[in-house]
Amino acid sequence: MYDFIEPALFAVLTIATIASGAGVILANRITTSALLMAFTFLNVAGMFLLLGAETVAMFQVLIYVGAITVLILYGVMFTPQSPRPYGLFFQTQKWWAALFVVPIAIFVALVSFTFRDSATLAPKGGDLLPLATSVFRDFAFPFEVASVLLLAAMVGAIVLVKRDEE
Amino acid sequence: MPVGPFGIDPAIWAPLRLVIAVLLAVGLVFNGALAQIYLERKIQAIIQDRLGPLHTGPWGLLQTFADAIKLLGKEDIRARLTDKWFFLAAPSIVFSPMLASYVVIPFAPSIVGADLNVGLLYLTTLGSMTVLGIVIAGWASNNKYSLIGGLRSAGQLISYEVPQILSLVTVVLVVGTLSMVGIAESQPGWQLNVLVLPLAFVTYFIAGLAETNRNPFDLPEAESELVAGFLTEYSGMRWAIFFLAEYGEVTVVSSIVATLWFGAWHGPFVEVFPLLGVLWFTLKTYFFVLVFMWIRATLPRLRIDQLMSLCWKILIPLTLTNLMVTAVLLLVFPTTVVPVAIANWILLALFVMVLPYVQRRRLVALRERLRTAA
Fold first, then answer.
1. According to the model, what pLDDT value does residue A27 have?
2. B42, B221, B279, B303: least CB-packed within 10 angstroms?
3. Which domain holds residue A70?
4. What is the pLDDT of residue B306?
5. Does A15 touch chain B (CB under 8 A)?
6. Tell me: the pLDDT tens digits for B205-222?
7. Could you say which residues from 128 to 157 on chain A have a Cβ atom under 8 Å away from some Cβ of chain B?
8. Which long-range contacts (CB under 8 A, 24 or more apart) does A79-85 make?
9. Is the ipTM of this complex over 0.90?
10. How many CB contacts within 8 angstroms connect chain A with chain B?
């Protein structure tokens, strides 16, 4: 009866993701870009929901919208704003951008048009256990290495910015 | 023709149910805010030996309605140098995640918007989205005080998310599910989680106070300093939406507490009349709303550095220890939660006894340093 909803949602999410992603690069002000980036992340979370990966969708919003975007906005707000349009820096390097983007785009298009075997997909819902098993059991060591790396980066950042106290 | 609930065609019932649920949630938020503002005024008045609202309607009951109508009727003012779209969007960015939280709150065994299997994660996710709205509100106002208020608030909310999530994870470890309905069902009769995990309850409640910007952590919108933080440039209905969101958030945090530690809808006679669960759930939730108000009327506001050191130096190590101890004990004794309960009560007692001692020693050290510097 309501089978049309899922493709319709997919269409809306796709258009919104691409449009806001383009907006991130084209917008002249960096705050607008940051907010549009948050919107892109939200749409991608919606995609994950459509695929039945609720946990990934939740973490997407929790980390990227709730933490990373806020961190970027935090950084932007502490730096003085000049009237110079920030976007110009990226918009003057069209040919370099094309050089990098076109091969990736061709590869993605090839993969997405050859991927037709949807029968092997797992049933929707309940991605919590598979996710936890793969992160904390099958790939526990890479996971720990990544967290040590993040910790080292954090300690390094603190050491770099810390002023000597009297 | 197939017949669904109430003799309605399922094809019509599915969208109808959605509309009813959303309208109910909006109604709950609006009426809850009206009731809570009245309660807040009356309870603070009683605690501070005053009378509170008295003249509009019987016992001053209509005072909040009068205030709401006044706010609706106010002119929508936007200062010229504010950032138009961000300024207009900020209240909705704060309000809509709060409204969306009502989807997973279990009012009764069968009365729940959607029994998501990641319900608790969903709630924390929505809670973290509020920060974005507050930062944007502070920045878009184009006002130093708003900006500082917004950034302080972001720092506070992000910091207190950590102990909040760590406390929730402890409960999830013991219960073994993230679904709100599942957590509620795991506590029949007197087997409430608060008896097993009292420390997680206390730390979550403290973090919840900070997450909802309530006293003693209401620095982001401190009325008497920072000219009300990120709310400075807001007036009329946009200001009211921020406060609706705050009261809604208080209700959500209270209902999380009621669900996770106090058995949600469980209570006498629920097995006979399942609808009675709504009453028990509401009573439990509003009990914690009242505790929020009681704390507001009792405690003074913390300074920003005290607030941050409480979070990073006390709450986070404590919740981490609690999480590790719980996890290890659950691995060692997979069949019983009694060791977890004992460890938790011991940790709680330590927290309550050692905290004033630590604070006093820090104060002495600070005075010593000031004296040597001078």
1. 77
2. B303
3. 1-89
4. 80
5. no
6. 999 888 887 777 776 666
7. 128
8. A85/A28, A85/A29
9. no
10. 69
Q: Tokens representing B108?
A: 């009764």
A126 contacts on B by Cβ (under 8 Å) = 117
Q: Quick one: closest CA in B to A73, which residue?
A: B135
pLDDT in tens, B149-206: 788 888 888 888 889 999 999 998 888 888 888 888 888 877 788 888 888 899 999 9
* Residue given tokens 């996770």 in the structure block: B260
The answer to whether B206 and B91 are in contact (CB under 8 A) is no
pLDDT tens per residue across span B289-314: 999 888 888 888 877 778 888 888 88
Question: What is the identity of the amino acid at A69?
Answer: T
Residues 43-62, chain A: which have Cβ within 8 Å of B?
54-55, 58-59, 61-62
Residue B295's alpha-carbon distances to A52, B130, B199, B270, B320, in angstroms, are 42, 23, 18, 31, 26
Do A146 and A76 belong to one domain? no
State the number of CA atoms in the 13 A half-sphere of A98 facing the CB. 4
Same-domain check for residues A72 and A132: no
Nearest to A77 among B11, B147, B158 (CB): B147
Q: State whether A20 and A65 are in the same domain.
A: yes
Using the 3D structure, point to which of A65, A89, A113 is the last residue of a domain.
Answer: A89
- A67 plus A128 within the same structural domain: no
A84 DSSP 8-state letter: S
Tell me, yes or no, whether A96 lies in a domain. Answer: no
| C-alpha to C-alpha distance for A122 and A108, rounded to whole angstroms | 22
**Model confidence band, residue B226 (pLDDT cutoffs 50, 70, 90):** low
Q: Do A55 and B122 touch (CB under 8 A)?
A: no
CA–CA distance, A155 with A137 (Å, rounded to integer): 27
Flag whether residue A72 sits within 8 Å of chain B, measured between CB atoms. no
Residue contact B124–A62, C-beta within 8 A: yes
Report how many domains make up chain A.
Answer: 2
Residue B55 CA to residue B66 CA, distance in Å, equals: 11
Q: Are residues A13 and A78 in the same domain?
A: yes
> Has residue A95 been placed in a domain?
no
Which residues in chain A land under pLDDT 70? 1, 80-92, 115-126, 164-166
Asked if residue A48 belongs to a domain, the reply is: yes
Contact B210, B218 (CB under 8 A): no
State the CATH number of the domain containing residue A67. Answer: 1.20.120.1200
Is-contact B168 B260, C-beta < 8 A?
yes
Residue A141 lies inside a defined structural domain of this protein = yes
pLDDT of residue A92: 67
Question: pLDDT: is A141 or B143 the higher one?
Answer: A141
Are both A145 and A83 inside the same structural domain? no
Task: Closest CB to A38: pick one of B11, B83, B132.
Answer: B132
Q: Distance (Å) from the C-alpha of residue B370 to the closest C-alpha of chain A?
A: 12
* Separation of alpha carbons A144 and A142, rounded Å: 5
A72 and A133, same domain (yes or no): no
